[in-house]
Amino acid sequence: MSRKYYTIQIIPENPYGVKKYRISSKQFILFNIGLVIVAIILILFIVHIVKINKTLANYEKMRVHNAQLVKQNANYEELFSRLDSLWIMENRIQNIFETFLENDSNKINSILERNRFAHVPSQKNSIDFEGIHNWLTTDEKIRMERIPNVIPAVGIISKKFSYENKHLGIDISARKGNPVFASGSGKVTFAGNSGDLGNTVVINHQNGYKSSYSHLKTIRTRKGANVTKGDVIGYIGDTGNTSGPHLHYSVTKNNVPQDPETIFTY
Fold first, then answer.
1. CA distance 79 to 130
2. Chain segment 17-33, per-residue pLDDT in tens
3. Same domain, 119 and 176
4. Could you write out the DSSP letters of every residue in 188-213?
5. 236 touches 249 (CB < 8 A)
6. For the chain, which terminal residue's Cβ has fewer other Cβ atoms within 10 angstroms, N or C?
């Protein structure tokens, strides 16, 4: 059986130099198969390039979206931080006034009236409050915060300071479990049981003043902790040698007992 051949001619514009190529039918078939394979590879390559371009486009969108999410998350964190600060402030105010979540205005007014500071001390200690009506420097603010001049619990002063009776502090009668506040900023030098005084916290205000809080139900701080004026450090109790729930509060200046009522300004 004779083999079939195909002749391919390449004819340039110039009639001279015509080129002829003679290929067999098998070679022609292989050539066509090769063209098909090349076409398939080219199509697959184009499809792959299109997919890569789509991926890159999606990546750019995802990058922009991720940056927006990061920014939005930072905004949320700032808002939550502000909400936490507001919650802490609200909690302190509610603790100080013993109103908590009470909605009855008559009851709130009754609480406030019952807890007015009904004392008239015989004399006031001379405390320098320079700049209190003006802007205070950072050092002045720190100095002011360390003065133990805030009454540490909401209640009634049931027993006063007396050298004669050897009662070198005051007793504040209040409901058991009510919060006890640091009267000034400082460092806790003692937090534990102190015999007849029961659970006690002592704060060194690092300006000559030291304040002591006794008969606590529970202690909410620890030795070595730094506390800020108004922080809750414990709760009214009746631990130690006592006839009922109250806070025994004492202050010394340069280790000399002071009448706390002569220091209170709030």
1. 36
2. 777 777 777 777 887 88
3. yes
4. EEEEEE-GGG-EEEEEE-SSSEEEEE
5. no
6. N
